[in-house]
Write a structure and sequence with these properties.
The chain is built from 19 helices and 23 strands. It is of the alpha/beta class. The longest helix is centred in the C-terminal third of the chain and has 22 residues, at about 430-455. The protein binds 2-deoxy-2-amino glucitol-6-phosphate (AGP). 2-deoxy-2-amino glucitol-6-phosphate binds near residues 354 and 404.
Length: about 625
Amino acid sequence: MCGIIGVTGAADALDILLDGLERLEYRGYDSAGVALVSAEAIDRVRIADGTHSVATLRTATEPLAGRSSTGVGHTRWATHGHPTEHNAHPHLDCSGRVALVHNGIIENHLELAMRLSADGHTLASDTDTEVLAHLIEEGLARGEDLTTAVRSTLAVVRGAFALGVMTTDDPELIVASRRISPLIVGVTDTAGYLASDIPAVLDRTRNLIALEDDQVAELRPGSVVVTDAAGAPATTTPLNVEWDVEAAQKGGFPDFMSKEMADQPAAVLDTLRGRRGPDGVIAIDQLDLSHDDLARLTKVVVVACGSSFHAGLVAKYAFERWARIPVEVDIASEFRYRDPVLDATALVVGVSQSGETVDTLQAMRHAREDGARVVVVSNVVDSSMAREADGVLYTRAGPEIGVAATKTVLAQITALELLALHLAQVRGTMTHEQVAVEFDELLRLEGVLAETLARSDDVAAVASGLSHATDFFFLGRHAGYPTALEGALKLKEISYLHAEGYPGGELKHGPLAVIEPGCVVVAVATGGPLKEKMLSNVAEVKSRGATVVLVVEDGDEDGAGVADYTIRVPAARDMQSPIKDIVPLQQLAYHLAVGRGLDVDRPRNLAKTVTVE
Ligand code: AGP
């Protein structure tokens, strides 16, 4: 996600902004920019130079040194609009009197942009953010001061935001506010600061406050005044920050993997944001396939690697049940060397966090050459796959730094289920009410995931009991089968232990022969149509001496008696269940790896993105 910083009352404001942006680079970004304000003008410089953007920005802004003591800066991780200079922040209003930086997603930006354009505003970017600058411009034109104009703007926007706004009318003031996206403000005797992340300002002040939803902060040199949405004084709690910069970059977690697991509720919710219209219709803005194209489809083929392949396997169940369309899921490196049967009625869906994995990229190219329609589910805007595909469905998990995919996998399953619901609506295979039930269940996952994550200590206790085990089988059935595959991959990847994922019913066709005392079987038995059959499979391994770890939903006692260890998860509908059932398996892998003293963020022999065959 984007990073923001602001400062007022500092002679070296520009340096502070650039240093802060450097401290935000670790999150990954595609472009960066700063703006400095004075009574006369706003000076703005934006650079879209990938991960070199802040360094390039430092050179490009040399002529602005000492120009102003108030400014804002931004590192952008594109969600709406390409990662180009004209989409980089800060954004300005029509008059050039207002500049702002934003982190988050404005869900109703399209309707606001249409209204603003009709009223004569010129929108200069493709972002969801820019509407905010023009709405604030309108408030100032009505005679409101900046704080009031920000407040009246926030009253009409839906979605998530953390923002910093300044105007030439009051050049020592920065107005900051947030809803859902985090924002901190801080002061010294002479300056005021804002930032999306603590590391950006940690070397300037530790006198910090985390704003609550809809609070508005007015920052001036040496002071900060925080009010609530109605303008009444707000109670604030100072942050007690004992972290150094490195710990702060990980949000206080010991490693990126645990931070990214903790990000999962937000990753799922952000991927859903703004994608169901008020009429209940699922809308995927950059899919670029007409209803006729979608209605004509005869099959869906998912191509992907690793964890993304597992997300595709989960989606197969959703597409087939909801949209009643045949689905093939193929390992990308195999797909391209077969001779797949494709034509214009096939929809090929590439699934890739990075959008750069060479096997998936080549598989998608192959499919296009064969005349298929090609879309990609990617976490990186304008990745190679996104540029080449007919349509894109972006996940909004934010940058993922740990090599083991966690939050991006959950976001991929969410996005694919969204696509399946969209297809079901277009093909008329589900009623409006049925779609609403499934979408609402996806929305409910935010809370379900938070509850699941909160039980990490229970999983740690299981991991500690298994600390001497070296052989693991992960079993699941139906949508629990890809869940099992993902659990096994996570364990292999970060703990270097032998693990295999299997469909529970397949055991007796061979693998049962290797089950013996000492072998650990992790069985996903969380509801779904085949839970009872799954429990029979568990009984088969138990009677051969395996140590059984059973993953079951709250209140389910059906498996009592067969398990050596039980991991409980909150209940969910079966199609959405993998999104939360994967979490305890990530936690199990994590705790086993940490117990073995391994670096969970950088496992041996592996790269985050595989760009060689
Ligand atoms: C997952 O933990 C792995 N790091 C790996 O399997 C990954 O999912 C795979 O390489 C695909 O990457 P992509 O999603 O960027 O295409």
